[in-house]
Amino acid sequence: MKEFLKESELVDLSHPDIQTLAYTLAEGLTSDEEIAKICFLYVRDEIRHSGDAKDDITTYKASDVLKYKTGWCYAKSILLAALLRANGIPAGFCYQRLSCSEYVKDVYCLHGLNAVYLKKYGWYRIDARGNKEGMDAQFTPPEEKLAFELQKGETDIPDIYDEPLAVVMDALKKYKSYDEMICNFPDL
Predict the structure, then answer these.
(1) What backbone phi and psi angles, to 5 degrees, belong to 71?
(2) How far is CA 162 from CA 1, 99, 109, 134, 137, in A?
(3) Is the pLDDT of residue 103 over 80?
(4) 179 has pLDDT over 80
(5) What is the 3-state secondary structure (H, E, C) of 74-101?
(6) CA pair distance 168, 153, nearest whole angstrom
(7) How far apart are CA 84 and CA 77, in angstroms?
(8) Whole-model pTM?
(9) Which of 2, 74, 106, 149 allows an S-S link to 112, with CB 3.0 to 4.6 Å?
């Protein structure tokens, strides 16, 4: 599990702002499940989804997602991993390959989410993308309630990664505006 607790350039969990928030969220809570849920709710509800908000900034480091309070699904998953790992809870990165017709017609792209290791359940996928009409991601272990239900031609990628995929990071680093990002979503 060490790789799912580690710090990296993107999952900068020792950043003072990440540390402060992680410990504040966990204050008074005793179980990994309680801490994971409060971290999930914070990222889902307090960090804007860059696409929904049409924010003209692309964040990718956990501390920047927190600072600017915005991120694409990929960036929100990085912040959530940092908060969980800062609290000693193993967290990884997962993906779905979805139709991106919400933004661009006839295009598929990756959607980023997390897997968290809960002592009672094992690996459990959570999606802090952010809710809106037609999306209702929840934290209800052991049942998954992700933002997107798969449609024809869409797939779950079953692997759990300790770091975001390179294709995702390349897109977040290269495309800085809303308009650039919606035309260049990462895909496999």
Answers:
(1) -175, 150
(2) 9, 25, 20, 30, 22
(3) no
(4) yes
(5) HHHHHHHHHHHHHCCCCEEEEEEEEECC
(6) 20
(7) 10
(8) 0.96
(9) 74
Q: What is the pLDDT of residue 94?
A: 98
Residue 45: CB atoms within 10 Å = 11
pLDDT of amino acid 142: 97
pLDDT tens-digit series, residues 158-171:
999 999 999 999 99
Distance (Å, rounded) from C-alpha 185 to C-alpha 22?
29
Largest Cα separation within the chain, whole Å, is 48
Q: Which of 77, 38, 36 is nearest to 161 (CA)?
A: 77
Tell me the two tokens of residue 150.
Answer: 């798969």
DSSP state of 2: G
Other Cβ atoms less than 10 A from the Cβ of 174: the count is 12
- Assess contact for 85 and 11: CB atoms under 8 A: yes
The H or E element spanning position 36 is: helix 32-46
| Torsion over CA: 57, 62, 67, 71 (sign) | positive
Burial class (CB in 10 A: 0-12, 13-18, 19+), 118: buried
Cα-based distances in Å from 120 to 31, 38, 123, 142, 183: 10, 17, 9, 9, 41
For residue 163, give both structure tokens: 């770091």
For residues 94 and 166, give the distance between their C-alpha atoms in angstroms, rounded to a whole number. Answer: 13
